[in-house]
From TrEMBL:
<feature type="transmembrane region" description="Helical">
    <location>
        <begin position="54"/>
        <end position="76"/>
    </location>
</feature>
<feature type="transmembrane region" description="Helical">
    <location>
        <begin position="492"/>
        <end position="514"/>
    </location>
</feature>
<feature type="transmembrane region" description="Helical">
    <location>
        <begin position="12"/>
        <end position="34"/>
    </location>
</feature>
<protein>
    <submittedName>
        <fullName>Uncharacterized protein</fullName>
    </submittedName>
</protein>
<feature type="transmembrane region" description="Helical">
    <location>
        <begin position="450"/>
        <end position="472"/>
    </location>
</feature>
<keyword id="KW-1133">Transmembrane helix</keyword>
<keyword id="KW-0472">Membrane</keyword>
<keyword id="KW-0812">Transmembrane</keyword>
Length: 537
């Protein structure tokens, strides 16, 4: 096979135009497809540009990470819209009239951190769960679509130009295959990113672009809810441990009879839909407490605990002035006593607890009418005849784009993580498989061919393993096990795997460029019509 290390332009497409067109397509697709969340307060323009540059790098080397991010936000927005619609249906059945049904754009605005509220503790972002809570209690704020569009910087012309460039790239590759002409590894790599960019466009179609300033809500309809929302959220938790200060305070509804707590057994049974945004899903043992045995199925958690052990910092809750409140410390269960909670937290005053109770009462009244939602907003323990305030992040500092590799909820809503990880695994399989299809192309050396095959197989295999692992876990157990201290060996194995996956991704991108130093001459022969298709490069 005749090869060349550099092809000039006059006789067809040249090496420079090939590289330039692929880079333009790659950067345009990734940059324009990114719809990042509202930045934290006081974020400089330089910091925002740097953040977007980071995401462009993620999009080039790990596009499935960006697709998983977009998928999580889409699912969260769709979840919020569905919940609001269910609330509206309930209102129409009971009151004869419903409220405003939010569009996907309005729901995306809430998911991306576009709504803020002022509290005595400062300004916080209303999370998707916070928005859902307000809808549940008939206090959904009025947010006009025009207000969102005015702040969004969506550019239809720019998207059209990118789509045309991407279409030209895809059409040229298809035409080359039909005519039996070779396709470069760089074009294969670019094709993968074009497909991912199209997926991002579809998932983020209704998401506002480059929203810089969130809307500050008028809280007149839900002002009494703010203490409850703050106390339930991690922003109101202990700064060292992240454990809520209301963790061990029993709640008695306004129409309920307070029953004394009795523990005639060594274990306590707790029911909680903590899959909705709770910090418990990040570490179950931190949420529930020290355990000697644990079982979890269908949101029922049974754990062993010593009775009568009350943290010294919680003893003040047993003072006379606290006993008349309907939010008081339990006689049996004290989360503050258990590791890793430190004896350093401050207790709530009776005045602030009274404010929290007002919000809890408003939610409780709604759950009495709609019992299926009881476990979403409260934690129930029939063993000790108690209810506790659920710990959901109704208020957050800002909406992160991608908080961690472990917490694939990518926000505060836990929207079936296994389903989301399926998206991550499938995208990795598709991305790796596309590169694997180039195994029989011309390579400058045999070693580079083998490294290409190994790298593509590693990415494809990682996606398949993720898919299989989470599918099996979903079949065998409906809830994740308690996370204790990680095994140091497994921890280093995990880091080693991540490091290897980073290396193979970097290799694929670098090899796509350096392979052009010894490319088939037919690579620079172009179908005649492609030169007349509008494009860059």
């Amino acid at each position: 096979m005749e090869t060349t290390n550099w092809q000039s332009e006059p006789d067809g497409r040249g090496t420079f135009s090939l590289i330039f067109s692929c880079i333009i397509t790659l950067v345009f697709c990734v940059w324009s497809a990114l719809h990042l969340n509202v930045p934290p307060p006081n974020t400089s323009s330089k910091r925002q540009a740097l953040e977007k540059t980071y995401w462009v790098i993620y999009g080039i080397f790990a596009p499935e990470l960006v697709v998983a991010t977009a998928a999580s936000q889409y699912i969260a927005a769709r979840w919020l819209k569905r919940e609001i619609e269910m609330d509206n249906d309930y209102k129409e059945k009971t009151a004869g009239s419903g409220a405003e049904i939010w569009t996907m754009t309005q729901c995306f605005n809430a998911v991306m951190g576009g709504l803020t509220v002022n509290t005595p503790q400062g300004r916080f972002t209303l999370s998707a769960e916070g928005t859902r809570l307000l809808s549940f209690i008939d206090a959904l704020p009025t947010v006009a679509a025009s207000q969102i569009h005015d702040k969004s910087k969506a550019d239809g012309l720019a998207k059209s130009v990118v789509c045309i460039q991407a279409a030209w790239m895809m059409a040229q590759i298809i035409a080359r295959l039909i005519n039996g002409l070779p396709v470069s590894l760089l074009e294969i790599n670019t094709c993968g990113h074009v497909i991912c960019a199209l997926a991002l466009y579809l998932l983020w179609w209704n998401k506002p672009l480059d929203l810089q300033d969130p809307l500050i809500l008028d809280d007149s309809a839900f002002e009494e809810m703010l203490p409850f929302m703050f106390a339930s959220s991690q922003v109101g938790a202990d700064s060292k441990t992240g454990i809520s200060k209301v963790r061990c305070l029993r709640y008695v509804g306004p129409a309920e009879v307070d029953q004394p707590q009795e523990l005639n057994q060594d274990s306590i049974l707790i029911f909680s839909e903590i899959s909705i945004g709770s910090t418990g899903m990040r570490n179950m043992s931190d949420f529930i407490g020290r355990k000697t045995s644990f079982s979890g199925k269908d949101h029922a958690y049974l754990f062993q605990v010593g009775a009568g052990e009350i943290s010294s910092q919680c003893l003040s809750y047993f003072a006379k002035e606290y006993q008349s409140l309907r939010l008081r410390h339990g006689e049996v269960y004290c989360r503050q006593f258990m590791a890793p909670q430190q004896e350093s937290g401050e207790t709530f005053s009776t005045e602030y607890l009274s404010l929290i109770i007002k919000g809890a009462d408003r939610v409780w009244t709604k759950t009495v009418a709609r019992p299926s939602y009881e476990r979403y907003f409260f934690t129930a323990s029939p063993t000790i005849k108690s209810y506790y305030i659920g710990e959901t992040d109704y208020l957050i500092k800002s909406a992160p784009n991608f908080p961690s590799l472990v917490n694939l909820s990518l926000g505060q809503v836990n929207i079936n993580r296994d389903t989301l990880r399926y998206v991550f695994g499938f995208t990795a399989m598709a991305y790796g498989g596309l590169h694997l299809s180039g195994w029989n192309h011309h390579f400058p050396s045999r070693a580079e061919r083998m490294l290409w095959i190994v790298s593509s197989t590693a990415i494809t295999g990682s996606g398949m393993l993720l898919w299989a692992f989470f599918a099996m876990r979903k079949l065998l157990r409906k809830t994740p096990p308690v996370q204790g201290e990680p095994d140091p060996v497994l921890k280093w194995v995990y880091y080693g795997i991540i490091f290897m996956l980073v290396l193979v991704r970097v290799f694929l991108v670098v090899e796509a460029f350096v392979s052009l130093r010894d490319a088939p001459t037919l690579l620079y022969t172009t179908p005649e019509w492609s030169d007349f298709f509008p494009h860059f490069g």
